[in-house]
Queue: 3 jobs
Job 1
Amino acid sequence: MGKLKQKLPLYWRLMRMDRPIGTLLLLWPTLWSLWLAAKGIPSVKNLVIFTLGVIVMRAAGCVINDFADRKIDGSVARTKDRPLATGAVSSREAIFLFIGLCVIAFALVLMTNPLTIKLSLGGLLLAFCYPFMKRHTHLPQVVLGAAFAWGIPMAYAAEAGSLHENIWLIYLAVVLWTVAYDTFYAMVDREDDLKIGVKSTAILFGEQDRLMTGILQILALYALILVGNRFELGLFYYLGLTVAGGLFAYQQWLIRFRAREACFKAFLNNNWVGVAVFAGLAMDYYWR
């Protein structure tokens, strides 16, 4: 027990519980989907299930990501002190922790319905595959986007009992948005990644990184406008999208010199994009 008590802070860091930004970026689109499925009043049960599920699966994703990167994180300035990179946590411990978190997440999903349970298998596969993609493709951010957006069909299915065909528009919007903000994140590590041979969209886009992330943000915003049209949303929703568009412009201004700290700040700022869209959506349903 004494050894476990010493390890708990290390496991906490390995699950990135001390850095909630990833959880928030995963949570906001899930809440968008719940609100759309329920037309503004989701069940408390599903709200609790998916909030806890987001926390647990993001933690599991961080653990398997660090396991996959355990031999290269030591060569990257931002990640060299991570528990697996330093040897403070063993690979075996990380695998057991990942399995335990997945079991907890699956137990939560079992409290939903058969369609959501089936969809959860796709989410688990995406979460497991993503960390290994950066060795084989310059598009790991696309796989991350697919994983981060998978809570959308799951939440909608849990609340509505079926999948609306237009839910995939939200899915597409979130994939595009994720690729944009995770490219900002990858721009922070670009110099280190080039040295160790890790691939990313930041490397693929090269000098066109600002242009490409800008295009992705515009496409994401356009997809969300289509969502508003298909789900017959009103003024408050579009005001939320206007704020999100302003935040995208601010992020482009932040990365104009491609400075590491500024790119990371632009990445973090995307939490407020999620807040803006959710606030607009929630207010739109509330004031009907």
Note: The radius of gyration is 19 Å.
Job 2
Amino acid sequence: MFDWISDANLTALIGLVGGVLLGLSARLGRFCTLGAIEDALYAGSSLRLRMWGIAIGVAMIGTHLLIGAGMLPTEEAIYLRLGWNPLASIVGGLLFGYGMALSGNCGFGALARLGGGDLRAFVIVVVMGLAAYVAISGPLAQLRILAFPETPADPTALPSISVKLADMLGLTAPTIGILIGVILTLAMFSSKEMRQAPTEVFWATIAGFAVVIGWGGTAWVFANGFSAIPVESHTYSAPLGDTMIYLMTSSGSALNFGVGSVAGVLAGAFIGSLFKGHFRWEACEDPRELKRQMGGAAIMGLGAVIAFGCSIGQGLSAFAILYYGAPVTFLAIIAGAAFGLRQLISGFAVAE
């Protein structure tokens, strides 16, 4: 590796680059998980949900191109090192989606809003990061492991859809992944609304490309560096806690990919909000709203750890590598968010 930069700092720089792209996508392209679900359920528009489809497809194509070129060792990808626990994907996804609805943002969305001056998002980021660490290594860690046991993945049967289909069809995993990615991306253009939205298509593509940068960059450091660097891509649950810990203990700790990614989203969102003229300081004036957002953030942090990723971690990064749990978790997040939105909007009132 270069003598002027450590492996950890290099992965943080890779995370920073991808994070900036994701932050710009959020502010300039309105790339948002909860916003996409709200539009589909209550505004009659599938545009932003289709943006997710394009981002997933692009990430899937790029990631499997890396695998096919031998630049990404599938067995080292963080999502494929543990066996899949379906119950964890469902329960964690439902909790995350419900918490996201209550707080009004996912972790990624809160970072993007914070970059635009929204101090309410700062509370969401801090509470979610703390809650994630409570579930990872704090008081709830043993209970989480007991309820949702973690087992190493079988190296001969990785929990990847592309690997499984390759064995069944006699094709290579990269070929399967690229084909699925292409089909998914093209399917998103079946909507006239999507075909007439070049800006949204561009930023969805950029979001997918950011995930590819994460996988490819960390895999390169893993193969060429001297440290035990995990092969990973963007997610925003544990990295929020990692960032807070680094800010408090930087003299005795090292940077990592997640910290760089968090900083990148903040920077990209800040630049995007200035470009659009949308930057302004905002605060919460209603204590009841703040209480709801803090509760939602805590539920999100717990749900993301149980599900092994958030809306970006499972909805993009894990999807890119076609991890078994990605589509299940993503659907559970949507269901949990729909439940939470229904509660907030109508309070489950019986229709007359």
Note: The first helix runs from residue 7 to 29.
Job 3
Amino acid sequence: MSRKPVPAQQGQRARVEVTFDRPQLLPQLFGEYDSNILALEERLGVYIHARGQRVVIEGSAEAVAHAREVLTELHTRVIRGEDIDTGLIDAVIAMSSEPMLTGIVRAENDEDGPPPIMIRTRNKTIVPRSMTQTAYMRALVSNDIIFALGPAGTGKTYLAVAQAVAQLITGSVKRLILSRPAVEAGERLGFLPGDMKDKVDPYLRPLYDALYDCLPAEQVERRIASGEIEIAPIAFMRGRTLADAFVILDEAQNTTPMQMKMFLTRFGQNSRMVVCGDPKQTDLPGGPSTSGLNDAVGKLEGIEGMAMVRFGIGDVVRHPIVGRIVEAYEGEGRTDA
């Protein structure tokens, strides 16, 4: 089996060799006329060359790590008697995650410096786009409670949801709980028709958007129906102990100090909490001085098991104009936008 290598980005070339102990199964693994290998090359952007029991994978560091993991899993499926086709290949690619860190993959890299990290969900692979995002993604797997502080557009909530989905998929947690305060952002919405879900969903829409970006829609709906995923206002957290759960509080700057204390003390065994918000931007009547987020940061900074990750304007990853807008408003010292 010999084909022209798939080009990798300059400076990110990596190579890994995998040896399989059941060579008689390799024809099933590779597929007729190497169709399965060709599918892997096309989907992951790697070059795969086999000689005997040895398979060499070349490409970018991230792609090589992903391809090795997928190929190993497919070999395991063949041992179990499963037939390999493009549908199974796509499913394994979507579900694969490196076992050394839950939801985060470290790939071998021939270059100097630390290996890249990423979060894999069913829908996509997410890599950090700034140094602060890199630190944040590391904190998400190494601390019990993480405060993500900074302006809009820096990926605070999105990365937390992605990591939560990755841990839910791998079984590291049993539930994913997403919450935020139901505080109006300056406008008055008046009476909203419908049941309780209809009334609070508009406030929680950003959390739904992040979920649907990380999981197929039918999986989101199924997991919500089964209770694996719960999306609710912070008031619904009172009186509960949240064990075996990944819990995210979004727009935390709009909590009061009592709400924040109530939320943090819901922490249970085998759980992780992420608190996201912009300390400079609150919709509470009294402004930032009345925010439970600012109060918590002042009280809890430096406590063991907690991480405070601070994003700045330079970490904004939306359209470049968003960063300029944030800079313009913060330059004026505005806190009410």
Note: The chain has a mean pLDDT of 79.
